[in-house]
Every structure is written in structure tokens, then in C-alpha cells.
């Protein structure tokens, strides 16, 4: 009996794996077609606000509205694009869209997520600088977000890119901070300007498990290292207040605003520093 149970469970498991694999293959095929067809992707913009509600930056978030098999979360199609060699083209397209939008809207800063795969390319810095040149966006107003989740390799190309981009004035942020294994290693190895405290910490603020103390320690440490600190996934006023108490004053999350289409973002008219009525 026990053996039979084990066998049937094993079958279900492999079927589920097959389904997952089949879905990834479909996504890969559809992504390829969408890239060839052009005009199939969108960028949404989520506001990042400071403590008085002024716009500090916006984060560009890729969307694939017409995906043939129904909506695909960005995490999934981006992972497929990374595995199948399409992320460079897709990532460059997002960068161009986002920089053009930021320049058009005179945004104080635009944050763009960058895959570790893009950073490994010897062409990456030149591509970024060409986009800045074409769109007229000053490098200081571009922030590239690297995620701590996927291993940044310590290869020469990654180091070179980050060094050259920083030397050109581009800002580097570490996304999903404190979720990876390496915690502070990246900050040390890669000359980071900004850390983004992951939502999994923000959502546990005020609980009894010591999260507040951990976040406070991260914020203090970050500030001591001269880093700017942004809290991600802020959903409630209580979380915002806890963060202010802890010393973190820049927020992103549904409480402040969801990711919005270009038009909706423009229509929302987020006040920029110095523009708010007294
Ligand atoms: P991320 O860079 O950490 O982006 C923040 C994610 O949290 C976004 O999910 C955003 O919609 C979501 N979010 C923001 N505020 C809240 C909140 O208050 N509550 C909750 N529950 N969620 C919130 P999204 O847009 O689904 O993107 C997921 C991830 O996909 C991003 O995480 C990023 O790692 C990746 N991604 C998105 N666009 C790009 C891109 O253009 N290039 C690359 N390489 N990765 C991207
Ligand atoms: Mg991000
Ligand atoms: Mg993040
Ligand atoms: Mg996150």
C-alpha cells in the first residue's frame, strides 16, 4: 500500500512538472512572436513618494497585456526571457520607454529593473548610455534596480558594467533587500547607492517576531553606509508610520499608489518636491 501511494504521488508530481515545463515552452514561443510582432508590451509606473507625499521617483514595471494564453505575471515571463536569450532585447525596450517617459514627464527619477543576465553583457553599458543620449535623460535621474534574489555573478563584465555606469552618474539600487543569502555582500562588492527593503519585511512590521528591530538595524546600517533606503510594498498607514519611526522616509506600495499606465500616471499628477500647496 505504502509503495502504491508513493508511486501515485510520484506520478502526479511528474505530471505537474510536465505542465509547468509545457507552459514555459508556450510562453517562450509566444514571447518570441510578441517580440517579433512589436508593440505587444506595456510599461506601468508606480509612484515612490517621500514622507510629505512628494514624488521621489517612479518604478517602471513591465506588462504583457495581450499574452495569448491569458495574463502571465512578470516574474514568470521575465524568467523565461532570461533563460531563452530574449531579456536583453526586452530589457532594452523597457529602458528606452521608461527613460523617454521620465524625460517627457520631468520625473525626478526613474527606476528600471535590470536582470543579472543583462549585466553580464559586454554591450550593456553602451546600450544604456545610448538610451540616455537618445532620450536626453541625465544619468543622475536613472536608477537601475538589481535584485538580490538572483545571483549577480562576480564576473568581470558585471563589475565593469556597474563601475562604468556609476562613473557615468547612473544610480544603482539593490531590490528585494534582505531576502537573498548574501545580505551585505552585494553592498560591499558592487558600490550600491540605494537599497529597497523587501515587502516581506514591511508586511511583518508591528508583529511580535522582532521584524521592527531587524528593519531598524538594516535602516541604521544603510544610513551609516550612506545609502538611500526605500521601503517596498507599503500597504497600510500603520506600516508607513512604523517606517517613519524606524527612520525610513521613502515609500512604495499600494498605500501610496499602484502601478499605473502612462496615461493614468500622467493624470494622477503626483506633486513633485516644492510643488505642493503649503
Ligand atoms: P519588484 O521590482 O520588486 O517590483 C515590485 C513589485 O511589487 C511589483 O510587482 C509591484 O506591482 C508589486 N507591488 C508594489 N506595491 C505593492 C503592495 O503594496 N503590495 C503588493 N502585494 N505588491 C506590491 P510586478 O509588477 O508584478 O513585478 C514583479 C517583479 O517582476 C518585479 O519585482 C521585478 O523583479 C520583475 N520585473 C518587473 N518589470 C521588470 C522589468 O522590466 N525587467 C526586469 N528584469 N524585471 C522586471
Ligand atoms: Mg524593482
Ligand atoms: Mg522590489
Ligand atoms: Mg519585491
Automatic annotation (TrEMBL):
Residues 24-273 form the EAL domain. It comes from the Bacteria. This is Bifunctional diguanylate cyclase/phosphodiesterase. It comes from Cereibacter changlensis JA139. The lineage of its organism: Bacteria, Pseudomonadati, Pseudomonadota, Alphaproteobacteria, Rhodobacterales. The chain holds residues 454 to 731 of 731 of the full protein.
Amino acid at each position: 500500500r505504502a509503495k502504491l501511494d508513493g508511486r501515485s504521488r510520484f506520478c502526479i508530481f511528474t505530471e505537474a512538472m510536465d505542465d509547468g515545463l509545457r507552459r514555459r515552452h508556450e510562453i517562450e514561443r509566444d514571447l518570441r512572436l510578441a517580440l517579433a510582432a512589436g508593440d505587444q508590451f506595456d510599461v506601468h509606473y508606480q509612484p515612490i513618494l517621500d514622507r510629505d507625499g512628494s514624488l521621489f521617483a517612479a518604478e517602471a514595471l513591465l506588462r504583457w497585456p495581450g499574452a495569448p494564453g491569458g495574463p502571465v505575471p512578470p516574474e514568470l515571463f521575465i524568467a523565461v526571457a532570461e533563460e531563452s536569450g530574449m531579456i536583453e532585447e526586452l530589457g532594452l525596450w523597457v529602458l528606452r520607454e521608461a527613460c523617454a517617459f521620465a524625460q517627457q514627464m520631468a520625473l525626478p527619477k526613474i527606476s528600471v529593473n535590470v536582470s543579472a543576465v543583462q549585466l553580464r553583457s559586454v554591450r550593456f553599458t553602451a546600450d544604456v548610455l545610448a538610451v540616455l543620449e537618445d532620450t536626453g535623460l541625465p544619468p543622475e535621474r536613472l536608477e537601475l534596480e538589481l535584485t538580490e534574489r538572483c545571483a549577480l555573478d562576480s564576473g568581470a563584465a558585471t563589475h565593469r558594467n556597474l563601475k562604468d555606469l556609476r562613473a557615468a552618474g547612473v544610480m544603482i539600487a539593490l531590490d528585494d533587500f534582505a531576502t537573498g543569502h548574501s545580505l551585505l555582500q552585494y553592498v560591499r562588492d558592487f558600490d550600491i547607492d540605494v537599497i529597497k527593503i523587501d515587502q516581506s519585511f514591511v508586511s511583518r512590521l508591528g508583529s511580535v517576531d522582532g521584524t521592527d528591530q531587524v528593519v531598524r538595524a538594516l535602516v541604521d546600517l544603510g544610513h551609516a553606509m550612506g545609502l538611500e533606503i526605500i521601503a517596498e510594498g507599503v500597504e497600510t498607514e500603520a506600516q508607513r508610520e512604523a517606517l517613519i519611526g524606524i527612520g525610513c522616509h521613502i515609500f512604495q506600495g499600494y498605500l501610496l499608489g499602484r502601478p499605473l499606465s502612462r496615461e493614468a500616471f500622467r493624470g494622477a499628477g503626483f506633486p513633485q518636491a516644492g510643488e505642493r500647496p503649503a
